[in-house]
Amino acid sequence: MAGIEIGTVAAAVARAKAVMAGLEQDLNEADSRLGDGDTGSMLARVIDRMADTDLGSAADVGAAFGLLARATLSATGSSLGTLVATGLMDLAKRCKGRDDLNWSELSVLIAGARDAMIARGGAALGDKTVLDGLDALARATDGVTSGEAAAAAAVEAAASALDRFRGQPCRIGRARLFPEASTGADDPGMLALARLVNAAAGR
Predict the structure, then answer these.
(1) Of 17, 85, 137, 151, which residue is the least packed, with the fewest Cβ within 10 Å?
(2) Taking CA 47 as the corner, what is the angle to CA 69 and CA 91, rounded to the nearest 5 degrees?
(3) DSSP codes of every residue in 188-202
(4) Among residues 156, 157, 72, 195, which one has the least CA distance to residue 186?
């Protein structure tokens, strides 16, 4: 059974692009409660740029992630966009020279990207950010052995993390200054992650 290949990455990007038209405004509305109201528009630009990138020209999976990191940086300089690029660059390093990775490696790959993003952005687990969503994905995919199992575990974990943190206040960024507003609201980064995981899983 095929593992994680360049085609796997390209297919996930294509599915993400397919849902962004309907997702962009939802993410902007979520962000308007806590931030600048542009998370959806920013991610739409990033994913458009990713989708325009020819991953078929990449030498291996690591190189494909590197191309996506560069596409992200060329599309935005936002804090969330920079974190996304940081995670992709970590994946590029970990997957360098690999044409096909086992699904059992997915948890370690996600955890590595999570840790790189923590080091770059300064947020901690529990602050109610996209990092908490990634942490849930890393834990849930530990031990998976197939794409189907990974997809099911990731979808459930991202949704559960969103539910778990919804009632908590944000502890970083501008939203931390208004805890009453962030309590009961979804963090835009976590919401984006959950929706895009669904898309990547074909749900």
Answers:
(1) 17
(2) 30
(3) HHHHHHHHHHHHHTT
(4) 195
